[in-house]
Amino acid sequence: MSNQSKEFDLLDMHNYRMEKLSVRQKSKFEKILIIAGGPLAIFVFLLIQFVIPIPFLDALNINPDRLSSAAKEVYQTIGAQNFSAINLSMLAIFAAGLVLWLTEAIPNYQTSLIIIIALVLTKVLPEQQAYAQLGHKVMWLNIMSFVLASMLVSTGIAKRFALWFIVRFGKNASTIFLSFMAINLVLSIFISATTAKAAILLPIFMVVSAVYGATGGENKNNFGRSLVLQNLLNINMGASAFLTGSGANLIAASLIAGALGRDVFYSDWLVAAFPIGIGLMIIGWIVANKIIFPLSEAEKSPHISGGMDRLKQELKLMGPLRFEEIKSIIIFGSILLLWVTDKWHGISPTAVAFLGAIIALLPRIGVLKWNDVDIPWHLLLFSAGAYTLGAALKVTDLPALSVDAIFHSLNLNANTPFWILYVVLTGAMLFSALIFQSKTMRALIFIPIAIGVAQQFGHPITALAIPVAFLIEHVYVFPFNSKPAALLYLTDQYSLTDSFKFGISMMLIAWILSIILAMTYYKWLGITPFGLGIF
């Protein structure tokens, strides 16, 4: 943003649409990774598949009595040697896919497609099971959520709300930060796609940043750094507060429900996770503005006279509330009511989203035409690859076998205190976000591990699986950790170092907070042992 032409209007929201953001130049290191990623992935695959021995995957070392029911059935059907072979292939495919995802040698959806066909060709999964993941119920929830998000965008109600809130409450630097916190929280109730939330809010906070002197590039300042990075944090913490906040939350809940033999309800998740989401938003505001990016007196004042008036004009140009917007509010309000009361009526979040999307698309009654629906199929293909990988992990039981090997090497046994297991598993879930690009994949890997560890050590499943699930959305340290992180990095309002300092600080705080909650709030709710509560 540093070399803006004279014609470029810093306060025009239309200049900050996603398609108008300048393409950020790759660093030399990133370019090297892109070039090396493909050959490195092939090398890693061949190394694991054919060269180095993996002792814990040897047929003689696999105890079928410790396998999950799904994996045990496969073991009994194909025999010990073949079971060992497909686990080895699973590990090789997983490692090679991880290299491709991390280096971005090819687009992530192409990596997912490669993973799917690789799992078929190596006979880890039969074709029907591998391809069927595109029809996973969470995939349908994602599709319906994009339909509903498109309704909010096309009618303008999401933009109207965000503008109104900033104009009404953003009177100074401090209240602006708090206003975006509240906006993120409200949008998270209605929009399950974190990327969609980032796209809605980006033009607004870019204009606000410009008003306070942060135009990106060489004109970075602490206001801009703090505002954009806090929005990245809040987009994710807002998602963590609600069961429908992201598809990864729903996957985690379905895995836990399967192990418990009963549903994890929207209302249960809300009671447990909502206060934590708000708490981490407030802590992030303090850490950013008071410690890592303290605002100077100059940065607390607008640099462009009348800048906030442009937001008022933008809101005024939208005119009075239209009937389509009112219908959008009614449709989403009804969806929210059904989500919150799911414990009583038993209709799943996916079915509720289905109903909402159908009504939104109905001629004359609805507010949306199919051509107005923005469904990012590349993201859905990426998710399908992650779900397929999860299905393969379930069939092979590779996570449980890996955990057994790790726990054996650490000399953890039946006498290991609960708190050691808790600290290790929550830490693993949190810090895995530094290398995994997909929240879905992390849910599919670590939730089954938490369930398996709880069962193996004789603890309630909720005691480990629920706290681990609440940490899925911590994907804000590096640009490649999530789609919103990658999108907001393009604003050029902060550096990789800025992102790391703030992100790793919040990640450590979240870990400490999770441990404290295990001894207090989670115990009171009955999540961790010996408590009385909803779970």
Main attributes?
535 residues; mainly alpha; 24 helices; 68% helix; globular
Account of the protein in words:
The chain is an all-alpha fold and 535 residues long. The chain is globular and about 75 Å long. Among the domains are: 107 residues, no CATH class; 182 residues, no CATH class.
Helix percentage: 55-70%
Counted beta strands: 0
- Structural class based on helices, strands and sheet pairing: mainly alpha
Count of helical regions: 24
How much β-strand is present in the residues? Answer: under 5%
Give the structure's gist in a few sentences.
The chain is mainly alpha-helical. It has helices at 28-51, 69-78, 80-103, 108-121, 127-131, 137-155, 157-169, 173-190, 194-211, 222-240, 247-260, 266-292, 307-317, 323-340, 342-345, 349-361, 377-396, 398-409, 418-432, 439-457, 461-469, 483-489, 496-519, 521-525. The longest helix has 27 residues, at 266-292.
